[in-house]
Design brief:
Blueprint lengths: L1 E5 L2 E3 L5 E8 L7 E7 L6 E6 L6 E2 L8 E6 L4 E6 L8 E9 L2 E4 L3 E5 L2
Parallel strand pairs: 2-11
Antiparallel strand pairs: 1-3, 3-8, 4-5, 4-9, 5-6, 7-8, 9-10, 9-11
Length: about 120
Amino acid sequence: VQLVESGGGLVQPGGSLRLSCAASGLAVSSYAMRWYRQGPGLERELAATITSDGGSINYPDSVKGRFTISRDNAKNTLYLQMNSLKPEDTAVYYCNAQKWGLSYWGRGTQVTVSS
């Protein structure tokens, strides 16, 4: 199983980025998929969730209305569209797949929001 994040980078406040998580060895359609993030000196926190059937999508208040999680089952890829970015969104963003007590992580992609 491999999860590979991409799409991070340096962006100015108010800008947008789209993160991708390409999966191999598992089907993103059959796992609960999540984006987590860990800012400098902070604990890892949940940024977005989509259930395996796509019936439930959740965000913490800190990103609600600005971030959108989605997936392309044909490409076996998870996405996170991030708009109206703020300096406090600066973090390493990780992709996570979870099912039946199994949990897989990517290595993360750095997002830096700064002018």
